[in-house]
Specification:
2 domains, Membrane-bound Lytic Murein Transglycosylase D, Chain A, 3 helices, 9-stranded antiparallel β-sheet
Amino acid sequence: MPELAKAELREVDADMQQEINADRWMTVQFNPETLKVTYANRIEDPAGPGDQRGPQARQFVGAGTTKLAVQLFFDVTQDLGQKLPGKLLDVNDVRQLTQCVAYFITPGGDPPKPPMTRFVWGTFQFDGVFEAMEETLELFSFEGRPLRASVTMTISQQKVTTFAFRGDAAEPQGVQRGGRPAAGTRPQTAAPQGSNLQSLAAAQPGGAPGGDWQSVAAANGIENPRLLQPGQLIDFSLKPPAPLD
């Protein structure tokens, strides 16, 4: 039976490219029930005399924002093999777990700022900075130790972008389809909206292998290289399957 994919919080660099400080990554105890993503553009009514009413008067005045809202649950009333970043402990206070989440909202460095965060779960990926975290302690022991908690967190990024996809989580790691490695086992390029395979291949370091974007299309099973789907993942290192004898 395939192993259940667990959501994770990971730290990334300031450019939100490289994952860093793996010893601070947090694997959730229970996967969230829902993920809420909110997209918003900054729209304002122009100031000034005259009749400015109507939708034509509203103007886009700044970059949009994207926010992810997630609620996580933690429980230490049973031995569930809770794993803290970098070590296994006998956890008897639920805040030993929630403090691992709080790391991502705590400013550090000079000047102080919270770490950049990547939330990943299967094919879902969201990069941003913690905007808010709310911890609710829901059950206490006789000694007053908190045993159960829920954490509601909001992660935001100062832009509205196309979706970021990770590898095909429904496919076990290393499984091959048609002689090709499973999606997500090699670095892949996400296609921007309105892009085509020819231009993406030309933008690769050294261009497409052998300058042959047709082979890249065949290797990735791309039917329409002139119009790619936004976020479509392309592995430029693949080679087309060998012809059958």
